[in-house]
Amino acid sequence: MRRILLILSAGILGGGWPAGAQAPVPVPVPVFHDDVVVTASADAEVRDDVPATVTVIDGKEIEARQSRDLADLLNTVPGLSVVQAGSPGQQASLFTRGTNSNQTLLLWNGIPLNDPFFGGANWQFVPLDGVERVEVARGPFSALYGSDAVGGVVQVLTGTRQGGTVDVEGGDHAYKRGGLAAGFNLGRARLDLTGHVRRGDGQFANDSFDSEEGVARILFPVGSGSSLGLLVRADDSQTGIPFSGDTPTPQRRIAWQEREVAVPFRSEQGPWAVEAQASRTDFDSAFRDRQDTSGFGTSDTSSQALRGRAVASWHASGDLRLSFGAEAQRLEVTNRSGAITNLDGAHQRTWAAFGQAGWGAGPVHLELGLRRDDNDVYGGQTSLRTGAVVKLGEDTRLRASYGEAFRAPALGDLFFPGSGNPDLKPERDVSWEAGLEHAAGGWRFAVTGFQNRLRNLIDFDFATFRSVNVGRAQTRGVEAEVGFHKGILSATLDGTWMDPKDLDTGLELLRRPKRAAHLTLTARPGRWTLNAVTRWIGERADFDPVTFASTVNPSYTRVDLAAKWRARDRLSPYARVENVAGEKYSAALGFPSPGRTVIGGLAFDF
Questions:
Q1: How many C-beta atoms surround the C-beta of residue 364 within 10 A?
Q2: At CA 497, angle to CA 493 and CA 500, rounded to 5?
Q3: pLDDT at residue 190 above 60?
Q4: What is the tens place of the pLDDT at every residue in 515-573?
Q5: Are the C-beta atoms of 531 and 580 separated by less than 8 Å?
Q6: 10 Å Cβ neighbour count for 423?
Q7: Half-sphere exposure of 101 (CA within 13 A, CB side)
Q8: Cβ atoms of residues 542 and 514 within 8 Å
Q9: Distance CA 594, CA 606 (A)
């Protein structure tokens, strides 16, 4: 940490790191283009050639909306439902096209952030400092990523910059936050630093959320067209839990720590491109409730993931692309409740090989992907994905795809005492989608129909008091979007209709709205950036957190406003109002969402 601070100080005060007598050689750094996506394919690919539904939220939109965490940003993506149990920092679940909350894969610069304990991701603990791009690929992607990519994949990609920005802000409920995003040349190397410190009390007693994050990435050139790097991230959070059901819990808190270390490598040599990354992820959570005298007021969980992934791609002179790769991972979990050890280093290993081919002729582009996963606990799984894009003239394209995906039973599903079942098989999904897109004259129109059929879902059997593969579900629906961008104005209106059904009971799946719509408006007149986001979420099935009776959570409408003014070349005051009308609603029934919140801040560029 001291060395990182010294490097940062040298960059700010001295304008760079001494390079000696040798002239600096530029290091290849990640560069993102609006027409290229990196998540929905084994290699970066032109968006119009990808037979999948992909939403890209770039850094300019993140800045205009003044979004500070991933859960808030994803709230306006078609087909996604983000359900947060109250204030910022509280548990957030993501349902992609109606699939379960642990069936969407979260990637941060290629590193999976799904917890090995029970497979879910902590969407509420992913800040957006220094993030240049968020890609949301909807549909099954196990043919590319293996487990967890059933409903889709969300990838957070940090970028690079010369110089940096420091911002400080504060507002209601004792909220205050400071953030940094900066980049420097260090002779032949490249260093990027991001981070934040946040404090806030929330709307109830013991509803606080405090967090800190620091990220450092350094890249070195290792020959013509090649780079080797080191990526380090540390994220710490402390969240108060104000109540359980209708009972206040003034002493209940949870601490969460994440540590990621990765060594990425990339090389481009003629028609060949090679990408590889070795990574280690550590999750640590500590639950404490000093008023709980049952013996379960203390719980500690430590999870670890070791991964290696390599992909080689070959681009022929014509429209032919071939990619093949391999992946290996080891997951481990230790969990203790009070004096009882539930899991003591429980682990599983997976080896995988995969390939993808893309070929085009005239207006037609075809893709085929296949992957084989072998696991030392649940056995093997083979996943297929195929699709086609047909360009109907210069401005219109028709696309369709079919895919198979799976979610492997997590270590908690397999081995947790009492409920664990080591004979569990992976959850399976068969999915298709078809869409039509047209873009011309600053306008963009898109409509997509989809269906997921899920089986072998892991449910808890009260007769045997253990987890079993008995669940079945189906989700189908339509996503529609209209976008406009011209001059200083951009606007996006989208809507989703969906039928999420439990095939065993015939009832609606919980917390998935059948209808939802979003409107995002951004204007940039002169030195101003103005933004308005309106969300309408329809009614959805839920349960009462006190009586556990089935009920309906009513619809709600929320409006957020944001404004930023570049007063000087380096100084920009800004403000935002969240939930302008003070709408009273609960994204998760029984957990009131925040009312009107006013925040102001100042950004300084250097």
A1: 12
A2: 145
A3: yes
A4: 999 999 999 999 999 999 999 999 999 998 888 899 999 999 999 999 999 999 999 99
A5: no
A6: 12
A7: 19
A8: no
A9: 34
Type of residue at 434: A
Question: What angle is formed at CA 412 by the lines to CA 408 and CA 416, rounded to 5 degrees?
Answer: 135
With bands split at pLDDT 50, 70 and 90, how would you rate the model's confidence at 29?
low
| Stretch 17-35: mean pLDDT | 53
* 414/336 Cα distance (integer angstroms): 16
d(CA 481, CA 160): 30
Separation of alpha carbons 14 and 4, rounded Å: 15
Residue linked to tokens 């999420």:
500
How many Cβ atoms are within 10 Å of 345's Cβ, its own excluded? 11
- Return the closest-CA partner of residue 475 out of 147, 191, 95: 95
Q: In the block, which residue shows the tokens 């000087």?
A: 568
* pLDDT interval class at 12 (50, 70, 90): very low
Q: How far apart are CA 143 and CA 153, in angstroms?
A: 12
Strand ranges (E), 152-297 = 152-158, 163-171, 175-186, 189-199, 209-221, 226-240, 243-244, 247-248, 252-269, 272-289
Query: Where residue 4 falls among pLDDT bands split at 50, 70, 90?
Result: very low
pLDDT above 90: residue 18: no
**Percentage of the chain with pLDDT > 90?**
86
Whose CA is closest to 387, among 409, 405, 365, 371?
365
Taking the mean position of all CA atoms in its chain, how far away is CA 220?
27
φ, ψ (nearest 5 deg) of residue 133:
-165, 140
Give strand pairing partners of 515.
Answer: 497
* Mean model confidence pLDDT for the chain: 93
Tell me which CATH code domain 39-605 carries: 2.40.170.20
Would the pLDDT of 184 be above 80?
Answer: yes
| Alpha-carbon gap, residue 65 to 80, rounded angstroms | 18
